[in-house]
């Protein structure tokens, strides 16, 4: 037997009806709020230019880390003028092995460039040391020149060495020598951009 009063089931229903009616009245009297307008975006602010420092405490501007590297110093005009003129050398002599080819080539390099080469002692500190691989044709003419070593400074000496090799050719008939028909020569450049073949320094 449930002990629940009859009035207890009606009161909550009446209370809910009253709350709903009150909510409707309040909603009818209230005015809906208009939506807020979005604020315009702020204009970008340009960065201010740096203010130059003046006076005794002013410091020089830091160098740009992305600046282009300095270009190599071009060779003196006298060297280029000497290399542009044809060399007048006697015909090369016969060679029996590659040691004789290298020795004859080194002598012809110096004989063809008396103003841009030297035969004296090699300085303790050299300007540049390019190394070339010189490939020959059977008649001793230059077929190809490859750079085996590029100096860390005065890189224009590579072109000076290549031009000297081509100008002093041919280097003798190598058609009967074993292939490959090539040899290596090292150029010892002093501060005056004059070279000495290392073959002549041994």
Description:
The chain is elongated, with a radius of gyration of 45 Å. Helices cover 29% and strands 12% of the residues. It has a domain at 93-201: Fusion Protein Consisting Of Minor Coat Protein, Glycine Rich Linker, Tola, And A His Tag, Chain: A, Domain 2, CATH 3.30.1150. Helix 3 (98-112) packs across helix 4 (157-168). By secondary structure, it is an alpha+beta fold. The protein has helices spanning 7-29, 77-84, 98-112, 157-168; strands at residues 131-136, 142-149, 182-189, 195-197. A four-stranded antiparallel beta sheet has the order 2-1-3-4, covered by helices on one side.
Mean pLDDT: 77
Strands, count: 4
The residue fraction in helices comes out at 25-40%
- Our measurement of the CA-to-CA distance between the termini, rounded to an integer number of angstroms, reads 129 Å
Q: For the largest sheet, list the strands in their spatial order.
A: 2-1-3-4
CATH fold category name of the domain at 93-201: Fusion Protein Consisting Of Minor Coat Protein, Glycine Rich Linker, Tola, And A His Tag, Chain: A, Domain 2
Biggest sheet record: 4 strands, antiparallel
Total helical elements: 4
Helix/strand class: alpha+beta
């Amino acid at each position: 037997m449930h002990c629940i009063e009859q009035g207890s089931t009606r009161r909550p229903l009446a209370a809910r009806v009253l709350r709903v009616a009150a909510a409707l009245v309040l909603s009818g009297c209230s005015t809906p709020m208009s939506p807020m307008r979005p604020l315009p975006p702020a204009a970008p602010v340009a960065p201010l230019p740096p203010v130059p420092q003046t006076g005794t405490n002013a410091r020089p501007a830091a160098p740009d880390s992305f600046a282009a590297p300095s270009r190599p110093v071009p060779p003196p005009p006298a060297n280029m003028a000497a290399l542009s003129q044809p060399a007048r050398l006697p015909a090369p002599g016969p060679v029996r092995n590659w040691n004789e080819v290298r020795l004859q080539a080194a002598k012809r390099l110096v004989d063809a460039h008396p103003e841009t080469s030297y035969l004296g002692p090699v300085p303790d500190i050299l300007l540049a040391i390019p190394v070339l691989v010189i490939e020959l044709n059977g008649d001793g003419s230059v077929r190809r020149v490859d750079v085996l070593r590029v100096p860390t400074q005065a890189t224009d000496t590579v072109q000076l060495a290549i031009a000297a090799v081509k100008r002093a050719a041919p280097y003798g008939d190598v058609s009967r020598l074993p292939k490959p028909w090539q040899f290596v020569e090292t150029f010892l450049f002093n501060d005056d951009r004059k070279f000495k073949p290392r073959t002549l320094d041994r």
